[in-house]
């Protein structure tokens, strides 16, 4: 499972009002949210600040970031109501995502998205399974 650095610190201190079961449930929610935040928001442009948002999975002082070994998938023919959260929910079951975002052209969605897994095997599984759902996935040229 992919987890953003310090997520475990958010889970490590139970309060008197929480049971162990509550704590486990809350930790799973936090980790899931951290995983989604990484896939959806890492390296986005913060226009008001003129910089990119950089999220780390590991403590930058002690560990390297995981290597990305997968091709970027180009997803086409998506409906106009498709958003990044929908994409994440569609693609995440097949593996940890490095990147998962709709492509905008002049701030308008044109039915195309880019998705990248960390592992090529996960990308292959997603492509094989989602083609059955009639989602067009291509390798960019």
UniProtKB/TrEMBL annotation:
Q: Which Pfam families match?
A: RRM_1
Q: Which InterPro entries match?
A: Nucleotide-bd_a/b_plait_sf, RBD_domain_sf, RRM_dom
Q: Give residue ranges for domain RRM.
A: 71-141
State what protein this is by name.
RRM domain-containing protein
Q: Which Gene3D superfamilies match?
A: 3.30.70.330
Classification lineage? Eukaryota, Fungi, Fungi incertae sedis, Mucoromycota, Mucoromycotina
CDD domains membership: RRM_SF
Which molecular function term from Gene Ontology is one that the record holds? RNA binding
Q: Which UniProt keywords apply?
A: RNA-binding
**Which SMART domains does its entry note?**
RRM (SM00360)
